[in-house]
Specification:
With 148 residues, this protein is mainly beta. It has one domain: Calycin beta-barrel core domain (Lipocalin, Beta Barrel). It has 1 helix and 10 strands, in the order αββββββββββ. The chain has a 10-stranded antiparallel beta barrel. β1 and β2 form a beta hairpin. The termini are far apart.
Length: 148
């Protein structure tokens, strides 16, 4: 019975005043970029039932060199971005800032990154990871155009 209560509590919407996943509808779509032989794509479903589902894949020379399963979900204490690079167990990043077409997720306890940012730049979807790596500030940024 306790397990059932735990499952139901995880499915409840965030507390009033907390932005829900609907505010991230601008992320939905198929996005991609190419630089030489390296192609990256990111896909996001539209928000539904308290979540968005996503995936990212990078290929080079016709081979997949990186993939990541992504999820954004509403929890009782807020909205979380969950990243599963290479299919590993998910790492949660809590939504700390949400404004029109911009979102910032943070997990200060994670090794790297500690922050994940998404924003729209005209018709493109951009993302950035940042934080401290080996004691120094580090980051990486991507911008993808809509895929047909």
């Amino acid at each position: 019975m306790n397990t059932l209560l735990l499952v139901f509590s995880m499915l409840q919407p965030p507390e009033p005043g907390t932005p829900g996943v609907e505010t991230l509808a601008w992320m939905a779509g198929a996005w991609g970029s190419a630089a030489g032989a390296v192609e990256t794509e990111e896909h996001w479903t539209a928000p539904k039932a308290g979540s968005l589902l996503g995936m990212n894949r990078t290929t080079k020379g016709g081979k997949t060199v990186m993939f990541e399963f992504l999820r954004i979900e509403a929890r009782p204490d807020g909205v979380y971005y969950l990243a599963s690079p290479g299919g590993r167990p998910p790492t949660p990043f809590k939504l700390k800032q949400s404004e029109k077409e911009k979102a910032v997720f943070e997990n200060p306890e994670h090794d790297f990154p500690q922050r994940i940012l998404y924003w729209k730049n005209g018709p493109s979807l951009c993302a950035r990871i940042e934080g401290t790596q080996k004691g120094k500030p580090a980051g990486q940024e991507w911008c993808w155009k809509p895929l047909a």
